[in-house]
Amino acid sequence: MLGEAPRFWRSRSPAALALLPLTAVFAGVAAMRRALFRLGALARVRLPVPVIVVGNIAVGGSGKTPLVQWLVVQLRDAGYKPGIVSRGYGSAAKGVRKVGPDSTPGEVGDEPLLLARTCGCPVAVGADRPAAAALLVSAGCDVIVSDDGLQHYRMHRDVEIVVVDKETLGNRLLLPSGPLREPVSRLATADLLIVHGELDAHLARRCGAVPVKRMRLVGDTLVPLGGAGGAKPLEAMRGCRVHAFAGIGRPSRFFAQLQRAGLEVVPHAFPDHHRFVPEDFAVAGAEPKILTAKDAVKCEPFGLSDTWVLPVSAEIEAGATERILEKLKHGREAA
């Protein structure tokens, strides 16, 4: 299905194995790069405030954005003034810039815009993450959350939070044979693992002594696209035929959530970060349409009728907040 990962990433098929020579090259370059940063041959930028990176070892969606939203709330409740830095995938911005509620997805990217609108804290984007983070520090932030920042080693980090979704790990081979950006062994070096879904016994062993907390995404209220009109419970659409549109890492998860709520779903999957155009929705005719919050920020200008958004939030197992705050405190004390 369009928008999903290549089929050969699901198993160690002949197609995946045929790419192993390229995978060996990718693995060698990635390992060399990590080693150079670890040994100090490549310099890391250390900011005057602590940095928390949120990321994963695989391409595709695993729930990072809802986790960042949850994390900002926890930090603010603990007395911090957090700021979020992101690459701004798909944005046309050059250099670094702050993201405002009135920014456009084309300027800053869809996820940073969603975070700026929902988190109520400063957000900055740029290919130079340390420079973007410095911009947030100058704005008064005393802790930086780096969204999808696990592989951006140039910026020193005090806490590493890795989101694990075994469905995105596929055949557990590195790119391009599989979906991994780093090997599974990388999980054992994180400070906290947030598991979205199930964690099989083999994977749990590879995580070593790193604390593991489970996450689930919840959402039961539909809001109208663009905010015109009132919200309504998802339950109100039970039994209705709807067209669901998703340009996220795992569209199937979104469709399944709607189906579990009793909706008759006609799925329309697109690649992650897809740049929607009004014509994409013509297939739905006059029937109701439902979007993810990430996609909604790109579709608001289209004037679509009978179109709804399903925001989700992360529920994290108890103890995650305490682990993060402890690492923040002791990490800076040891510096």
TrEMBL record:
One Pfam family it belongs to = LpxK
Q: What is its EC number?
A: 2.7.1.130
GO biological process, alphabetically ordered: lipid A biosynthetic process; lipopolysaccharide core region biosynthetic process
Instruction: Kindly list the GO molecular function terms attached to this UniProt entry.
Output: ATP binding; lipid-A 4'-kinase activity
- Keyword match Cytoplasm: no
- One GO cellular component, as annotated: plasma membrane
Q: Which reaction does it catalyse?
A: a lipid A disaccharide + ATP = a lipid IVA + ADP + H(+)
Query: Which keywords annotate this record?
Result: ATP-binding, Kinase, Lipid A biosynthesis, Lipid biosynthesis, Lipid metabolism, Nucleotide-binding, Transferase
Keyword Protein transport carried by entry: no
Q: Where does ATP bind?
A: 58-65
Q: In which pathway does it act?
A: Glycolipid biosynthesis; lipid IV(A) biosynthesis; lipid IV(A) from (3R)-3-hydroxytetradecanoyl-[acyl-carrier-protein] and UDP-N-acetyl-alpha-D-glucosamine: step 6/6
Function (record text): Transfers the gamma-phosphate of ATP to the 4'-position of a tetraacyldisaccharide 1-phosphate intermediate (termed DS-1-P) to form tetraacyldisaccharide 1,4'-bis-phosphate (lipid IVA).
What protein family does this chain belong to? Answer: Belongs to the LpxK family.
Protein name (database record): Tetraacyldisaccharide 4'-kinase
Q: Which organism is it from?
A: Azoarcus taiwanensis
Q: Which gene encodes it?
A: lpxK
